[in-house]
Amino acid sequence: MQIEIAAKRLAELGHATRLEIFRYLVKGGKTGVPVGEIQSALGVPGSTLSHHITRLVNVGLVVQRREGRTLYCVPQYTELDALVAFLQDECCINETTDST
């Protein structure tokens, strides 16, 4: 993953409301969660929720799917896994061992 992409995704998740939304979506599973359910559960006004979801969609962490009149938000686990892997990728590579 490129550092610019990781930085954008982390910046979007760095906002408390977006992080709360994303965590709720992750709990909802791979089928996604209806926008109305997210709004009810988190108590976020509709226009504000739409703004935050759009930000998560723009960085690839969420996709939306429409079924009839219901709009679902689906967390992108592959992208989440890639972000976590990016953060852990070089864990401890500069660590030195004390041979004494």
UniProtKB/TrEMBL annotation:
PROSITE patterns: HTH_ARSR_2. The keyword DNA-binding applies. Keywords: DNA-binding, Transcription, Transcription regulation. Coiled coil: none annotated. Residues 1-95 form the HTH arsR-type domain. It comes from the Bacteria. InterPro entries: ArsR-like_HTH, HTH_ArsR_DNA-bd_dom, Metal_resp_trans_reg, WH-like_DNA-bd_sf, WH_DNA-bd_sf. GO terms for molecular function: DNA binding; DNA-binding transcription factor activity. NCBIfam families: HTH_metalloreg. PANTHER family: ARSENICAL RESISTANCE OPERON REPRESSOR ARSR-RELATED. This is Winged helix-turn-helix transcriptional regulator. It comes from Pontibacterium sinense. The lineage of its organism: Bacteria, Pseudomonadati, Pseudomonadota, Gammaproteobacteria, Oceanospirillales.
